[in-house]
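#structure-requests
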Amino acid sequence: VNCGQKCLIHQTAIINNFKNIKLGNNVRIDAYSILITSNKKIEIGSYVHIGAHCYLSGQRGIKMKNFSGLGQGVKIYSVNDDYSGLSLTNPTTFVSEKKKESEGKVIIGKHVNIGANSIVLPNIKIGDGASIGSLSLVKKNLKGWYIYFGIPVQPLFKRSNKILELEKEFMKNEKKKRRNK
């Protein structure tokens, strides 16, 4: 895996097609998580946590920006079958005129948290600072700096952006630590 400094990947994590996966600095991927892709990239920023049992299906690309995180069991799909009955389904039917899929890169903004066992469908952009409660379904783009919850997600209320000030302090301290080494 193309990996920055201080990355911790649990030995039970499965990473498929590792040449197309890029990790920033200070990334942690917990036990039994799976990252798979084909010729598109999965890009993970710095200071990112991926909880245990997460599944990132990046055939059309996934990007997680800095300071984002996934709770346990989060599933992110960049390709999904059409289950309306008007299309063949499952990977054994391959792509043909008889099969329809929704597809597209998933972009998770900076300081986004996605709660345990939530699902993010293809071609989604989640704005900086959004927070998604556990057991939620994201099937449309989300504005930043709101807290969302539900199936499908609905905005509950605005989220404070004080975290941006905290990030500046944190990064200043990180710089000092590096200089003092």
